[in-house]
C-alpha cells in the first residue's frame, strides 16, 4: 500500500515508517520537526542524537535496501498538505502529527494555544485533504486512552450502548480528559466522527496508553535509527523516565500516591497494532475504535518493577514521592476492555523481567549522556 506517515519524525512515527517499509509498503513520511524544536526550546532533548529524516531514510536504505520518501512541511498549511495528498494519493494515512505531551500543553497559555491550534488544524486538514484527493483511503489516527479519563465504570472499546426511558442507542463512550493535550484528542475524535457520518470516510481511531521502549526489529543495534528516547518531564513517558532515573541514581519520581493506573504497551506493540489496523481497514462510513494497550499498571507497580530490575542488575534504586504536579485521581477504579486488536492478531510483548532488564541494560550504556536537571522541573496543572 502507499502509506503516508504523518508525524514521521516522532517517537512512534519513525519506527512505524520503518516497520511498514520493512513489510513492503511504500512509505512517505511527513513532518515539520515541531517536536524537535519544542524539545530544543525547552532544553529537553532526547538521550540520543537523532539524525534528521533525510539522513535516517538514507541509513534505513543502506540497512534494508528499501526507500522511505521524506516531505518536510506543516500540515496546518493547506497548500502544503494538499500538494502532499495530490501527488502521493495515499491508500492509507497514519496520523501521529500532533503535539504529544500532556505536561507541555499545561505550561502556559502559549503552549496550550499551540497544542490546541496545531492538533486540531492538522486533523481538520487531513480530513479535508483525504476527502478532496483520496476519499476511499483509510485514516489511522492516534488517539489516547486518556480520552476516557478514569471513570468509575468499565471502559468499553470506543462506544457505549445506552438504554434511556425504554429506548436504546449507541454513543461514543463518555470522555473526560486530564489535560489540554488529551482534550485535543477528544476534539479530534469528534471531528472524525462528524466527517465519517457526513462524508462516509473510513477511520480507525487508536486509543493508546503510554508507550515504553526503544528497540524494534528494524532499529536493533543501529543507534542512528533509534527513536527519540525522552526522559524529561515534558516528552518522556513514565516508564522510560523511571529507567533513566534508576540508571542515573535519581530517585524515581512518583507523583502523589502512585495509584494512577494506565494501560501500557511496548513500542514494538504500537508498531504491530498500527500495521494490523492498516492491513484490515475500517469500512466506508465506519469510525472504528480500538483500545491500544497490553497491560495495566499503577505508577507504584511500575516503580516496583524498575526497583526489582535494579536489584537484579546491582543498582541501588530509590523512590521519592513528590506532591502531584497534575490534577488526577491517585486511587481509582480502572477496567478498560481491549479485545479488538487481539482479535485482529496482536501478539503482545508483556513487560517481563527480561524485557525490563534489557531496557535497563541498554540505557546503562548511555549513562554518561543523562542530563539530570532535565528529569524534574515541576510543571503544574494548576499554578499556585
Ligand atoms: N507519572 C509519575 N511520575 C512521573 C511521570 C508520570 O507518577 O515522573 C504519572 C503521571 O502522573 C500519570 C502516569 O504516570 O498518572 C502516566 O504519565 P505519562 O507521563 O507516562 O503519560 P501521559 O502524560 O498520560 O501521556 C503519555 C503520552 C501521551 C499519550 C498518553 C496515553 O505522552 O502522548 O497520549 O501517555 S494515556 O496516558 O493513556 O492518556
TrEMBL record:
Domain NAD-dependent epimerase/dehydratase: 3-291
One Pfam family this sequence matches: Epimerase
Pathway: Bacterial outer membrane biogenesis; LPS O-antigen biosynthesis
Family: Belongs to the NAD(P)-dependent epimerase/dehydratase family.
Name of the protein: NAD-dependent epimerase/dehydratase family protein
